[in-house]
Amino acid sequence: MNRFHGKLGLQQRVLPRYRVPFFDLLASVCDDGMSLFTGLPRPVEGIATADELQVAEYRLGRNIHLFGGGLYLCYQRGLIDWLEEWDPDALIMEANPRYLSTPAAVKWMHERGKPVIGWGLGAPPVSKSRERGRVNFLRQFDALIAYSQRGANEYADLGFPLDYLFVAHNSVSPSPTWSMPVRSDAFKESPCILFVGRLQLRKNVDMLLGACAEMESQPRLVIVGEGPERAALESLAEEIYPAAEFIGAKHGAELKPYFTEADLFVLPGTGGLAVQEAMSYGLPVIVAQGDGTQDDLVREGNGWQIPPDDFEALVSTMKDALSDAARLRRMGEESYRIVKDEINIGKMTETFVKALNILTAE
């Protein structure tokens, strides 16, 4: 893997646990080290955060949260103090115009002749007045790294220079070091459908229960996770799908037997950190369409994307998926190939280093 021959600073609003492996891997290829600056989320957000990194230096600032919903803004106190102390050769920041301290940090870097890279989801269409503000916000960055090709296309549509636009496919998992589980071309007594995630309304687990109830040959449904909706979902399952198995929260190696035994992974709601992990065990996947980060990961060859909150689409797609076990196995092989060869935190790190080296060489 190529290296960044300098000192890196990286700003995030918060430090979710799932980002720790990526940040430590990126820090390990920075010759003069990397420091991460973040604050804490609002309690109502329910984000599982980390409070330390193994390789990168970590600085906790203070997030001042303003308003809420579509009006949410955040100011990060201590950001400039951190820059003055760390004095990075390059800075990577979240490309989110809701973060009020970003322009001051960019100005601080540019006054010293140092580049700033924005890292973001993209820029979906908005009103003309908001678009002008967004364009002005993005222009302050020397380069942009998008989570997905869709996001990169949106930045390009706003006129951002293609030579300074990069795609680092959003990933939370390393390339699998294990072999793909061997599954027969026929289901066992009944196919096994797996859900892994937090049990909250936006995950649409209630739809998954209802969809399983619509199957002629009712599958085994395994639900791994904990959350505020568990009691309500268990009560619903007793009414419409009593065979559903609620396992509770499992992490790391505890998840392996569930991924290995499953035939199909289904995530009918938003989010989905477990999708890549499921794919690393050779599972085809059904996911709800979202912000574009799933577009590169879930393709015709390894799964299905369905409209969010569309029960009929979920039912028909699950029936289609379970109609041909041999096809499902081939799709699982493609899932494994994608996360092993194309989309993992190693590939993500390579793109970040490429962007850094291009900018600092100029």
CATH topology of the largest domain: Rossmann fold
**Alpha carbon gyration radius:** 22 Å
Strand order of the largest sheet: 3-2-1-6-7-8-9
Q: How large a portion of the residues is in β-strands, by DSSP E?
A: 15-25%
Query: Given this structure, which CATH class of the largest domain is correct?
Result: Alpha Beta
Helix content: 25-40%
How many helix segments? Answer: 12
Beta-strand segment tally: 15
Q: From the helix content, strand content and strand pairing, which structural class follows?
A: alpha/beta
- SSE pattern, N- to C-terminal: EHEEEEHEHEHEHEEHEHEHEHEEHHH
Under CATH, the homologous superfamily of the largest domain reads Glycogen Phosphorylase B
> Can you tell me the overall shape?
globular
CATH architecture annotation of the largest domain: 3-Layer(aba) Sandwich
Distance between the termini: 21 Å
The residue-averaged pLDDT reads 95
Instruction: Provide the number of structural domains.
Output: 2
